[in-house]
Amino acid sequence: MTDFIAGLPKCELHLHIEGTLEPELKFDLAARNGIALPYSSVEEIRAAYEFDSLTTFLKVYYEGMQVLRTEPDFYDLAMAYLRKAASQNVRYAEIFFDPQAHTSRGVPFDIVIRGLRRALLDAETQLGVRAQLIMCFLRDFQAEYAMATLLESLPYKEWIVGVGLDSDERGNPPAKFAAVYERARQEGYLLTMHCDVDQDNSVEHIRQAVQDIGVNRVDHGVNVLEDPGLVEEILEKGLGLTCCPISNGYVTESMKIEGIRKLLDLGVRVTINSDDPAYFNGYVQENLEALNFSEEDLVRLQRNAFEITWLPRHLKDGYLAELD
Ligand code: ES4
Ligand code: ZN
C-alpha cells in the first residue's frame, strides 16, 4: 500500500507553510538571524512538540515561526516544503500562509509574500510541482485587523488565489468575519475557512460558513456529519472538505477516520491533507497511509482533491487524466 500511495499523483489542499518548519531549518534560520533558541539540539526541539489540543499546539506553532524574518527565510521555508512534496509525488499544492503571524511581530507583508512567491515559481520550473497561495486571517485577532490585511494584500492579488481563516476557533465564529469575506469575494478571491474538528459549536460554524458566508470549500468540517441536512447541502453544492487525519489525532482524541470514511461513502468531496506536517510528523503520504483504505478509495480521494482545486478546468483535467 505504501508503494501504491507513493505512485499516485497527489494533491495537497490544506497545508500551513509555517507548519512545515522542520527543526533542522528552525535551527539554521535562528543561527542565520542571530536568534537564541531555548533549545540546544534538533532533538530538544522535537521533544518540545508535545500537544494534546489546538491551544497547546498553537502556542508551539507561533513560537516556532519567530525565526522567520527575511525574504530568503520565507523562500527557504517554502522551497523545503515543495522539495518534500515533489519527493512524495505531490503534483499540485494550495498553500496557506498567515501574514498576521508575521506582520504582528514586525515582519512586513511584502517580505513574506515575495519570498513565498519566488519559491513557488522556482518549484514549478525546477521541481515540476505547481502551487498557489491562500492567505489566512487569524480569527483570534480583531476583524478590523483581518480587513486591513486584506487591503494590504490587494497589490499582490494576482499571487493569491483565495482567503482562509485559521487559529483559535473558540469564540471566533465565521460570522465575525462576514464583512471581510464579502470584500474578499468582491476582490475576486475564492473563499475557504477552518471549521476544526470537535471545537465548540463546530456544526454551527460549518453552517455559517456554508450558508451565511458562502464559502467555496471547508477546511476540516468532519463534524458536519452531526447534521444530515447540512451534509445534503454540501453534497448538492459539491463543496470539498480538506481533512487532516494525523492532525486530528493531535488536537482531538481521534484521527476521525470513520467520519472521513462515511463522508467519502456519501459522495462528499473529502480530501486528505497534512495541515502542519513538521509538527504532526506526517506529510500527505503518511496521512494517506494512516487511513488503511482500499486502492479504489485512495484513487477516489485524489480525484476529489484535483476536482476541488482552485485551478482552471483544463489543468484539473490534465491531473485527473493521470489518475485514469
Ligand atoms: C492550525 Cl491545526 C490548526 N488549526 C487552526 N489553525 C491552524 N493554523 C495552523 N494549524
Ligand atoms: Zn489547518
From TrEMBL:
Site (Important for catalytic activity) residue list: H220
Protein name (Swiss-Prot/TrEMBL): Adenine deaminase
EC code: 3.5.4.2
InterPro entries in the record: A_deaminase_dom, ADE, Ado/ade_deaminase, Metal_Hydrolase
The record's free-text note on cofactor binding: Binds 1 zinc ion per subunit.
Lineage: Bacteria, Bacillati, Actinomycetota, Actinomycetes, Streptosporangiales
Family: Belongs to the metallo-dependent hydrolases superfamily. Adenosine and AMP deaminases family. Adenine deaminase type 2 subfamily.
Cofactor(s) this protein requires: Zn(2+)
SUPFAM superfamilies in alphabetical order: Metallo-dependent hydrolases
One matching Pfam family: A_deaminase
Catalysed reactions listed for this entry: adenine + H2O + H(+) = hypoxanthine + NH4(+)
Domain (Adenosine deaminase) ranges: 9-324
Signal peptide residue numbers: none
Binding site for Zn(2+): H14, H16, H194, D275
Organism of provenance: Nonomuraea longicatena
The protein's enzyme class: hydrolase
PANTHER family: ADENINE DEAMINASE, ADENOSINE DEAMINASE DOMAIN-CONTAINING PROTEIN
Binding site for substrate: D276
Biological role stated in the UniProt entry: Catalyzes the hydrolytic deamination of adenine to hypoxanthine. Plays an important role in the purine salvage pathway and in nitrogen catabolism.
Keywords: Hydrolase, Metal-binding, Nucleotide metabolism, Zinc
